[in-house]
Amino acid sequence: MTTLEGIAPTTPRIEGANFLNLLIVDDERSIRDACREIAQSLGFNTFTADSAEHAYRLLESQGIDAVLLDLRLPGAGGLEALNQVKSRRPDAIVVVVTGYGTVQSAVQAIKNGAYDYVTKPFSLDELKMLLDRVVNHLKLKTENRMLREKVKSKQGFGSIIGRSPEMEKLYRIIAKAAYSSHPVLILGESGTGKELVARSIHFSGPFRDKPFIPVDCGSLVPTLIESELFGYVKGAFTGAAQAKDGLLSIAEGGTIFLDEVGELPVDLQAKLLRAIQEKEIRPVGSTKRIPINVRILAATNRDLEQDVSQGNFRRDLYFRLNVLSLRIPPLRERRQDIPMLASHFLDRLSRSAGQERTLSDDAMKAMLAYDWPGNVRELENCLERACALTTGPMIHLGDLSPAVSNLNASHTRTDGSMGSKIIAMAELEKQTILNAIAQLNGDKLMAARLLGIGKTTLYRKLKEYGSQE
Ligand SMILES: Nc1ncnc2c1ncn2[C@@H]1O[C@H](COP(=O)(O)OP(=O)(O)OP(=O)(O)O)[C@@H](O)[C@H]1O
Ligand SMILES: [Mg+2]
């Protein structure tokens, strides 16, 4: 007997549903199929299970947000199933489906943590209204979480500082992404806070107690990346005296953050794609495949679309990683965040030095006018350097790095030679980098640290210069 009538093929989608995973648990196939069809037409990602055991497995391996649970399952059904669902996923919203005339069990289910109930047989409209309420409830929950995060930090979102409209927009996307299990591609120039955002997505989400594992695809030696990511068995290669778990296994249940994913060699891109698609990995030297359950976040400061069109990055992997994407705006596009960021870093520096530091008006003016090609990291380093140079409590214009104070001077000059200035700066940057490496006897890591840029940025620049350094 089917209990759903009148499935309309053109039901309008519910806004926000596309971020949500709905699990439908019913032993009757016709009901599962009908509910799935409706939920999908509303925009949900759906999973179905025909038994309580099957549902538990899915709850453990997928980021389920809401569950439609038939209380009359054969075997371990009823309230026991509800309790098991809640213990596996306390944050999930559970709607129980009860038989006609069994309101008593529905009341008990609500007491045990179900969000709502629906009685069989139910109509398309009833189901649609119910799912509408579920989406709104989940949205509200996320917004409340965001509000709580904001109260914790009046200056931004968790540990991310900034209240510009561009950043507020970003926080809304982070909050939504945190509650989805899809891959997210984080884009932004060097030093804009890509790793900070990745951490924020993980630590604002329901699996914040599970591991967050960052992998720098740019700095690992290509031959090592495979064994790092997938692990290896004893004797897989010379030196493999013991078997080792790969990072994709270590991150089980949590998040793996593939930083600088654009640097991944093409053959590994194929292996990674396979692991994501099949949710399985094969350790180096092993014939066995191991199931994995990890959320993938990736970041890059490269133009991946261009890499795809030039054949340097696999299109299919790009689409897999780019299910959701967010772009962190460069600091020069949100200058109003500069004072807040400066005061945040100065507070931290003052605390660690045990001495109060403030910025003079002209120093702040110069900082507001400067373009910050190295973004927030450059600003942080600039203040660190200024604090190290100053003995008094006030940081003056002259204490800032020459680039910051000088550019301010050239800003007031209106010679209109924009084109030549940009070329000159690029050249200046190249000379600065090569000089630093030469002065440090080739120590690139130290050069990157002292220049206030990421080591991958430094390697990329050297590649661009065609330098053998
Ligand atoms: N909005 C922000 N609020 C506070 N700190 C920030 C913010 N953005 C960046 N930072 C700080 O700036 C530094 C650089 O950030 P992060 O490493 O996340 O940048 P990135 O985009 O990954 O850079 P790269 O591309 O060079 O790896 C870190 O110390 C980080 O804590
Ligand atoms: Mg980074």
Structure overview:
The structure is a single chain. The strands form 6 sheets. Strands 2-1-3-4-5 form a 5-stranded parallel β-sheet, sandwiched between helices. It is 49% helix and 14% strand. By secondary structure, the chain is of the alpha/beta class. The chain has helices at 29-42, 52-61, 78-88, 103-111, 124-152, 165-178, 194-204, 222-230, 247-250, 266-278, 304-309, 315-321, 338-353, 361-369, 375-389, 402-412, 418-439, 444-451, 455-465, and strands at residues 21-25, 45-49, 66-70, 93-98, 116-119, 156-157, 160-161, 184-187, 212-216, 231-232, 244-245, 255-259, 280-281, 290-291, 295-300, 324-327, 358-359, 394-395. The termini are far apart. Helix 3 (78-88) links the parallel strand 3 and strand 4 (93-98). Bound molecules: adenosine-5'-triphosphate and magnesium ion.
